[in-house]
Amino acid sequence: AYTVTKPAGEVVGNGEMRYPVGRALFVPGWDAALVGMCQGEERVCWIPGNLAHKSGSSLFLIPPETGFYSKLKVVKVLLTADGRDSIDLLQEENKKRDEL
Fold first, then answer.
1. How many alpha carbons lie under 13 Å from residue 85 in its C-beta half-sphere?
2. Parallel, antiparallel, or unpaired: how do β-strands 85-88 and 76-79 relate?
3. Count of H helices and E strands in the chain?
4. For residues 35 and 3, what is the distance between their CA atoms, to the nearest angstrom?
5. Which pLDDT band holds residue 95 (cuts at 50, 70, 90)?
6. Contact by Cβ (8 Å): 7, 75
């Protein structure tokens, strides 16, 4: 699960996702923040502007290349077919619902 908060404290995004680590696909700073985290661990981190989403993206109503706080919870660490880790930020109850 993740929560994104502006520096002033306003929550501007939250949700769940499967995040492939090391590919910098969504928020490059999340790659660094997730390294070393274990299943069930939660971490609050500052994502600086140079590791936030880039120009052309309007992620979470925060301007591109603007820093923000992010709370991350690792539900499960998965190994993908290409040998890379994928961090499961999906809550267990939603995964079960989706598997039906």
1. 17
2. antiparallel
3. 2, 7
4. 18
5. very low
6. no
Instruction: Quote the CA–CA distance of 25 and 35 in Å, as a whole number.
Output: 15
Cα four-point dihedral sign 25, 28, 29, 33: positive
pLDDT of residue 100: 33
* Contacting residues for 66 by C-beta, under 8 A, at least 6 apart: 49, 52
Instruction: Map tokens 């290409």 to a residue.
Output: 82
What tens digit of pLDDT does each residue of 51-80 get?
887 666 556 677 778 889 999 998 888 776
Residue 60: what residue type? F
Report the predicted TM-score, pTM, of the whole model to 2 decimal places: 0.70
Structure tokens at 35: 């390294």
Euclidean distance between CA atoms 29 and 27, whole angstroms: 5
**Contact criterion met (CB below 8 Å) for 43 and 54:** no
